[in-house]
Amino acid sequence: MTPTLPALAVLAALIFTEALSALARWLNVRSLSLELPAPLRGIWSEEAYARSQRYLAASTRLGLAREGFSLACLLAFLSCGGVCWLDGAARAAFPGEVGAGLAFLGALALAQALLDLPFAAWSAFVVEARFGFNTTTARTFVLDRLKGLGLAVILGGALLAAVLWAFQTLGGMAWLAAWAVVTAFSGVLLVVAPTWILPLFNRFEPLPQGDTRQALEDYARDEGFALDGVFVMDGSKRSTKANAFFTGVGKRKRISLYDTLLDKMTPEQLVAVLAHEIGHSRLGHIRTGFWLGTLRTGLTLGLAQLFLGWGGLQEAFGATRPSIHVGLMLFALAWQPLALGLGALSNAVSRRFERQADAFAARAPGGPQALAEALKALSLANLSNLTPHPLLVALEYSHPPVLERLRLLAAHGPGPRPSGAA
Ligand SMILES: [Zn+2]
What we know:
The chain crosses the membrane at residues 68-86, 149-167, 173-198, 290-312, 324-345. This protein has 422 residues and is mostly helical.
């Protein structure tokens, strides 16, 4: 690599972003308080609170080591002639520009995944296991990675080939064509993921008949919400952590509850969770989220097109002749600070949506109390960080911290109908 000013600027952008993210994590651990927050006394024990802090410290240490190692490998690759060597090898193997580009970017992605593998294993089998979360077997761990690799090759490869081809052949308007392709692709994925992709990783079964299912179906019916089904997902295959999520569009909207959630919540609390999810749908959050993501993709691709015209930059990193794939790789690095900023912006929007969905759920039969109890149970099951640092919240939190959600729910008062009333 030749240390020209533009080349150094690209590296500085990358290092700045990593440093800011590391600073947020470090501040987060530093700001832990020893006293169990009042709203969670009685649900959380002092012992669980202390354990959640040890868990946070251990996972933060691993995360910092993981990101530091990945950054060091990348910097070594860039500064030791890696671009020139890999570009040469990709061109020798595939004569066409698109083929060489796929090989170049594919090899980088594969190398990154392989370098990360020991950290992923350490996370599951050491850190998560030490705190009693891990239930992943070695077989599931390996199969997950193989399935992920297969999907990346088939879906990621096809999408990347289309984008490379567009930038290679369509001139100044390429970013628009690439934007259309990526948007269509995400739209299709949104529709087919629940039926084709998620079942590759988990089993989904209809929730058995009983009080819980009855309560959930009654609530959806009273709300006039067309629910395609209530499913139980075998989340316990990988972790004891619990969650619930919504999938599908149009008439095929389903709620999926982790099996690990069912024994931790009462039917009334699960109704509050469903009400929160229905709130997202009713308030247009899912649609708005999709279009905001689309806008962000357009901005990224438009800037990528401008960036590709930056003369001399690729040569500074050792490319013997400029290409779309080396340009896109460098763009991905230079783009990091802006991506972090846009991520923070979209997290701020998401947190706002979460507060609105909570307010919607506060009007469900159990009132704000039912959702508050559900959130408390969830925070304990997952040993959530109760006092995250504001910088980390701003950068990475898609949901408000649990104490903020509890405070807002408490401000709603006891709710329309007291718990247990008909
Ligand atoms: Zn939500």
